[in-house]
Write a structure and sequence with these properties.
Helix content is about 35%, strand content about 20%. By secondary structure, the chain is of the alpha/beta class. It has one domain. It has an eleven-stranded mixed beta sheet with strand order 5-2-1-7-6-8-9-10-11-13-12, with helices on both faces. Strands 3-4 form a two-stranded antiparallel ribbon. Helix 1 packs across helix 11 and helix 7 crosses helix 8.
Amino acid sequence: MMGRFSAILLAPLVLSGCGVAVEYGDIPHSQLVENPRCNPDKSDAGAIAGKDYFAVTSRLPDCLGENVSLTNHRTDRVRYARFAPPEMIKPSKGKKQTIVPLAFQPEADWWSGLRDAANLRKGRVLLYVHGYRETFPSTAKDTVQIAALSQFDGPIIQYSWPSQGELLSYAVDETNMYWDERNFRNFLTKLARLEWVKEIVIVSHSLGARLVIPAVEYVDRTSTNADASNISNIILASPDIDREDFERDIAEEVLAARRVNNDRRITVYASLNDKALAVSRALHGYPRLGSPYCFNPFEAKELVAKGQAARCFATKTKYETQPSKTGFTIIDTTDVTSGGSGHSDFLRSIAACEDFAAAVNGARTRSERIATPNAHVFQLKSVGKVTKEQVATACKRVVE
């Protein structure tokens, strides 16, 4: 009992990264980027051959070695790159390593490549923004998995901000996420204003929601056509964002009735089994959008008295005139969490994976969704007991 109690007390300290420092490293950062591969004047057709995924990053690159890599440090400029699926290598000495074949491009060439890829697929683009505790290899794996799982018909972009990839570095990640707001906002603004981009599907995970939502608000606010936007489909997986903030301010702007009628919608994947968001709630003091925790104990008691589970979700935006379309949907994955921390059900649970793939491709309803007393909240049908191999196959996940 004491061990469990101690773990609860230590949880906020673990997540906040108490006592964890970011080390500069043994090499001046300027030397890491001296090689022309980090700042090419023109594209190298050979270097980008076979690299079908697009990346935009504010991570500091390391171009000293044989393979270009991205560190967990900030850099002085946003860079544009192409990458191929990660590869596992076994050095003659040491542990296995994940290498992501990566090549930088001049910004203009990168945009031209994206345009050509988008024009082949009716102008659809998917943008993935990762969350806390990630490295570029880990998010590259997720990007490739999202592509395979959804079979998305268009180019896929990963926006990689300098998360540390460490359990004890939440505070550093949160700091870097806020530091990167302007970079991401500028990128999304440019992407959304291109005539050849007809539809943008945004997928964010965890802390990534706090980059995405304010940036979408900015794009909406500064658009020359306030009633239209090519940012149509926003998916927030386990969003680590204040639930009440979302209800009060964010939903009202991003899901304004005119935008919902123009096909804007947000789908949230939430789980009461999400351990990471439980610790985030302990740190921040208030519930997160991605966890249906009942902050109000009296509300929880009322739900139980009605024979319902004690789960409290973000409410829908209230409109003077109700939109003709559905703009806000929450998928409760509590009952289908497949092991782990419950923080990545959209890529780790068969039921959630299948629903996520459908949502990426525009599905608004599915027979596998179970209605709840809240019209905008749905649960998922459990597929029963499954093995890790079955989950990996269904979710298109590579098991190492």
